[in-house]
Amino acid sequence: xxSKKAVRTYHRNVAVLVGLILLVFIxxxxxxxxxxxxxxxxxxxxxxxxxMAWNLLGGMTGQNSxxxxxxxxxxxxxxxxxxxxxxxxxxxxxxxxxxVVLLVVIRFRPTGILxxxxxxxxxxxxxxxxxxxxxxxxxxxxxxxxxxGREA
Length: 152
Fold this sequence. Notes:
- This protein is mostly helical.
- It has 7 helices and no strands.
- The protein has helices at residues 2-31, 35-60, 67-86, 90-108, 110-113, 120-130, 136-148.
- The protein is flat, with a radius of gyration of 27 Å.
- The termini are far apart.
């Protein structure tokens, strides 16, 4: 029973700590009146969240993917350009940035660039016609024909 009580106490302490941190986050905009200092707080918390995500993804799992960062940067760039050049509503500009990223993804299809994700017919076409190397099916057919004593 002591271990269950210790676990409950630990979870309660963590909940209190998280609650206090959230309370500080909520109170910062009411206490700090300078837009510059408030912007610094926003950037610090954004970067800390980004660094924790990178630590989880790149450090603990060993998966390094910079594609998501590129898409995020492209959307942010398109959004900022629209706001700065036309004075559009930032929320509508964010939707515009998402649409730009969607169009880029549809146009350049990252799954089609890498051979690992292509379907078998597309991969066979790229291998035989573009790279001029026989596909696995052709090699298997030749080996089967040789094994059976006939020509492929």
